[in-house]
Amino acid sequence: MAADSGGKRSVCFDVANSYALASFELLNEVRPDDMLVPAPLDVSNETATLLAMLPVDLSQDLDQITLSLSDIVLDKGRTPHAWVGGKRILLGGGGRLVDSSEIDSIVDQLGGFGSDNRAGLERQLHRISAFRNRESEIIGLTMRVGRHISGNSHIISDLLFADTTASILFLGEPGSGKTTIVREATRLLAERTNVCIVDTSNEIAGDGDIPHPCVGFARRMMVTSLNKQSAVMIECVQNHTPEIMVIDEIGRNTEVEAARTCKNRGVRLIASAHGDLRKVIKNPQIRGLIGGVESVTLGDAQAKLEAKRKTINGNVSKVKAERAGAPIFDVIVELQRGQHHIWRVVRNTTDAVDRILDGQQYLAERRIRDPASGTIQFEFEMA
Predict the structure, then answer these.
(1) Which residues, including other chains, have CB under 8 Å from residue 65's CB and lie 6 or more apart?
(2) Measured distance CA(131)–CA(42) in Å, rounded
């Protein structure tokens, strides 16, 4: 693959060779019909229903900036604001305060909140989350805009289609775009195989009995409360024979064990979780996703070998952290908030975790997308 002066390579996907990454220039010259070149992104903007729930003066403030709108924040007795392109925008002229009746009016338009204090709109991808006081009265709302971005997952076509058994985990902080990516990956995979979504808060496929069209042929199982998610995952495997299961926001040990059970039954997993790879290793609730961590005591001979490489506070440590078992997820995709077109891909979770626990850096791929053209640049990096 041809590289530019900075080490980046322009790449595409070789459909005839199991979607392997290939040089854009070379494949375009010798076998152009086998190229899968990601198309420009097509961003949906279904915000009219969400804005219609707001007081008129607030919706008017947002009417011309919906493409970059991510969250609307309404707290009783405080200035309403929105997050647009990563910046806070004050609404209502900056001097008006939110009245409790305005919050009540929005709540009345919803079908009710789940045990996770989240609600949705019929066949919409938006999420409304509630703040409550000690009497469980709703005193604040976060209205998050949900979007479908066609073409968003083409940047990882090789990961989705080359190895049809590899489970993929998307990691990132809130707002990094995990759910939006999972939606599009679900649609693409469902065109070829039996895909079932275990939808924690109806975020992937939208609220209501009928899933949003953005998930294509995928089927969806709803989760009535967070503490039942692991049971629904097992039920999905037992009753609906999915080849691929999609899960949003794995965050508890019970879900990790359910994911392990599903993987051992031959189901491929596509899921998301909060954090990055190093943070997941430190998180006792979910580090089982990448194999878990255990402490082992080294013998004298092993300790001497370790002493040649590193010491702790000047002393040799005879206790070492090691991976406890095989990772549930074979491939990791790390995302960062505000960097929606730069993805870090870790193809070998086992090796990366072992290297981190050994105090070393791990090899990753850095993929950079031009959102206007869909073209991709690629480079290796140590993370």
Answers:
(1) 84, 89
(2) 33
Residue in the block written with tokens 């990132």:
172
Provide the pairing of β-strand 42-43 with 149-150: antiparallel
The pLDDT tens digits of the residues spanning 47-74 come to: 999 999 999 999 999 988 888 899 999 9
Listed as own residue / partner, the contacts of 252-256 with beta carbons closer than 8 Å and 24 or more positions apart are 252/226, 252/285, 252/286, 253/284, 253/285, 253/286, 253/288, 254/227, 254/229, 254/230, 255/229, 255/230, 256/285, 256/286, 256/288, 256/289, 256/328
Residue 4 — pLDDT band, cuts 50, 70, 90? Answer: very low
Strand-pairing partners, residue 363, are 382
Q: What pLDDT does residue 327 have?
A: 97
Distance CA 127, CA 121 (A): 8
Q: Which of 356, 366, 362, 358 is nearest to 279 (CA)?
A: 356
- Residue range 329-363, pLDDT digits in tens: 999 999 998 888 999 999 999 999 999 999 999 99
Element of type H or E holding 22: strand 20-23
Question: For the chain, how big is the Rg over CA atoms in Å?
Answer: 23
- Residue 295 identity: S
Look at residue 284 and tell me whether its pLDDT is greater than 80: yes
pTM of the model: 0.88
- Structural domains of the chain sorted by starting position, each given as residue range(s) with its CATH number in brackets: 45-144 (3.30.450.90), 150-291+326-382 (3.40.50.300)
